[in-house]
C-alpha cells in the first residue's frame, strides 16, 4: 500500500524553531500549500527591531510582516484567494521563546501547551555566522539543540522530530575519493568535555583559544565545529525521542518552490555571487574544477518533510509490531519504512563514479530494504550488509539524511557556475554595480593578494583621499559613497577568506537514505516532495540564483530577466517513457 504524506500530517500540530529564516519560510510555505490539513503550526520567535521599518516589532507584528507578509507566500495567496489565505494564516501562531535560554525561553504556560499539542518538531534555528565567537556559537548551535530535545521529551504526543545540521560536520573527510556516509563519525574528543571547557572560559580566553581549538581539531570555523558537537550530544541524549538528523550542504535559492530564484538571506556563497555580479570582486580564491555542493532550498525542505513522515511511520510500525508480539500473535519482521537498511551507515564505494555514492544507480546496486533481506536471506552479500548495518530499531541510532548533490553524476563545479554567471552578465552591468562582471578564479594566494590590493584596495584609498578634499572635488555626499564602497570591498575580501576552505577543497556526501525516502510513497507525494539531483540544470540554476539575488536582496533587476527553467533530465525521460 502506498503512503500519502498528507495523511501523516492531517490534524497534527507542528512546532518550528528558526521559522523566520530562509529555510524556515520555505518549510512553512510547503506545509500551508501542500499539507493544508495540519491543525496548527507554532513558530518560536522573539520580538525584534526591523531595520527596514525602523521600529521594534512585537511577536504578532513580526509574524504578520516578516513571515506571512514575505513575498515567499505571494504565489499561495494568489492561488487560494484572500479568504482562504486568511484561513491558512490562522493556523500559524507565534510563541515567545529563545533557544539560547533555558527551557527554550518558553513560559510555563507555553511549555505545557506545546507538551500537550505538539506532534512534529523541526529544529532549524542556528547561527550560520562562520566567525561567530565560539561560546556564542556553542550556546546556540550545540546547547540550543539540546534544549529543543529536552522540550521534545516532554511532548506527550510527539511522533517525529528533525534536527537540521550541516554536511560539513564531516569537514575533515575531504577529497573526491572519500565518501562521507550518512552516519556519525568520531570527533576525536569528548563533546561534553569540550562544551565544559569552552563554557568555563571568560570572553578574552575564548577569543584566544577559539583559533587554537579549531586548528587542533581541523575545523574551518565555529559554525561547523559547534554543529558537529551538537550532533554527537543529541545522539547521546536522545533516549526514546523519535528524532532524525537532516544535513544540507550549501543551501542555495529555490529551484521551483515557492518560485524559481526565491532567496531572502545571503550565505557566504550567495554573498560572493552578489559581489561578483556587481563588479565589486574581480578575483576569487577558488579551484574551478572542484565540486560546488549546492542544493536548492526547496529540495532541503522536501527531505525534511519526508524524513518527518517516514520517522512517524517507522515508529508507528514499531509500536504495532511490539503490540502484536506482546499479544502473542505471529508477525512478520518489521520493515523500515524509509527503505534503507542503515540509518547510520552507508556502503562506501571505491570512488564517486562507481555507483555515485548515492545516485539512484548506486542505491539500487548497493542497498537493499529489510523486506528484500528477509526475502533473499541466503545471499551472502545481503547477509553481510544486514549484519553490518545499524538501524534505529536495533540500537536507537538516529537516522541521518544528507541533502546534497556531490555524490550525483549531475553535480556543479565552481567552473561551471562561473561560466554560467559570466554568460548571464556578459555585456551588461547591474544598475547598482560598480562595473561589469570580470572575474578571475585562482588558487594562488599571493597572486590574489596582489590583485586585491592593486585593483580594489588601493583605488578605494585613492578615492577616499580625493573626496576628503574641499569642494568641488570632495563633499560629504561623495565621502559617504566612498565609505560605502570601502565597506563593500572589505566585506567581499572577508567573504573570500571565510569561504576559502569550501572553494579550495571538495567533499563527497552520500545521500542514499535521502534518496530512499521516496520508497513506499504514493505518486502525489513522490512528485510533490521530490529530491532528485538529476532534475537540476546547473547552468540555468546559477542564472536563476543571480536573478533572485537581484530581485529579492538588492530590490532591482535592471535589464536582467528570469531565465526559463527547462525540463529536467528526469522529466524528459519520464515524458519519453509515457504514453
From TrEMBL:
Catalytic EC class: oxidoreductase
CDD domains: FAR-N_SDR_e, FAR_C
EC number: 1.2.1.84
Residue ranges of domain Thioester reductase (TE) in the record: 16-304
Reactions catalysed, as given in the entry: a long-chain fatty acyl-CoA + 2 NADPH + 2 H(+) = a long-chain primary fatty alcohol + 2 NADP(+) + CoA
Keyword line: Lipid biosynthesis, Lipid metabolism, NADP, Oxidoreductase
Molecular function (Gene Ontology), one example: alcohol-forming long-chain fatty acyl-CoA reductase activity
InterPro entries linked: FAR, FAR_C, FAR_NAD-bd, NAD(P)-bd_dom_sf
Alphabetical list of Gene3D superfamilies matching this protein: NAD(P)-binding Rossmann-like Domain (3.40.50.720)
Entry annotated with the keyword Cell membrane: no
GO biological process: long-chain fatty-acyl-CoA metabolic process
Family classification: Belongs to the fatty acyl-CoA reductase family.
Described purpose of this protein according to its UniProt entry: Catalyzes the reduction of fatty acyl-CoA to fatty alcohols.
The name this protein goes by in its record: Fatty acyl-CoA reductase
Organism: Leishmania enriettii
